[in-house]
Amino acid sequence: MPDPKIFACTQSTELAEKIAKSYGTELGKISYARFSDGEFQPSFEESVRGARVFIVGSTHPSSENLMEMLLTLDAAKRASARHITAVMPYFGWARQDRKDKPRVPIGAKLVAKLLESAGATRIITMDLHADQIQGFFEKPVDHLYGSTFFLPYLRSLELDNLTIASPDMGGSKRAYAYSKFLESDVVICYKQRKKANIIEHMELIGEVKGKNVVLIDDMVDTAGTLTKAADMMIERGALSVRAITTHALLSGNAYERIENSKLTELIVSDSIPLRQQSPKVKVLSCADLFADVMHRVHHNTSISSKFIM
Fold this sequence. Notes:
The protein is of the alpha/beta class. The protein contains eight helices and 14 strands.
């Protein structure tokens, strides 16, 4: 069976290089021509006719990253690639998974349809904001979990009196899954928002006094929720508070909030490149996970062993 070809969108080149190295191959050659008005055009610099193609690119803001993935998928389709897999470590627009008020779009559904229309025959992604987004696709979706590399790191810390925490009610399922493997207690934060990214009120359900707490979430954007929760837990007697968030958007003044908070450590994946370095932010790579799953997909073998959660 011929080896697949792995290509990178510009926003994920560093991660794609790690994935290709872990897979045992090199990145394929692709170029992006840019016009003076900002328009761009991807071009494969090698034949992909009849090949299995993996295109690696997270679709975090700005929307240019999504557009780049769509154009690259379309280029592969029109170049007669046999299988075209969109490898999206971070699936953007996933917070718009339902109508939470009148007259708003369901952005995640729209993105799913765009990806399929552009030519994707399979999607590989990680820690979706909402599991049901898989159902927005008519093509196969491999939904991977960051817990496959976060859990070994957590165990290596050998924390006594470990307690897993969810920063909101919606993340309780994820927190309980971690607690099951770590055989730990669970606490949940209950928050009310004024509007997106602004918290009006937060309460804690559970006891954290004398505990080493680990907050679990799928993404961190402004870091308002995580830092507020961490500070509240320390005030209520927690020995330490760490946070695991798969996707590090870290927009606005997130870095300043993290460095000024009581968080001991923020543990993230490299699904999104960091805007800057911080002594409190530790990055664990998801490259080996994606390379392994891509290898299994190419050779038509089971990937069920990769689903820790």
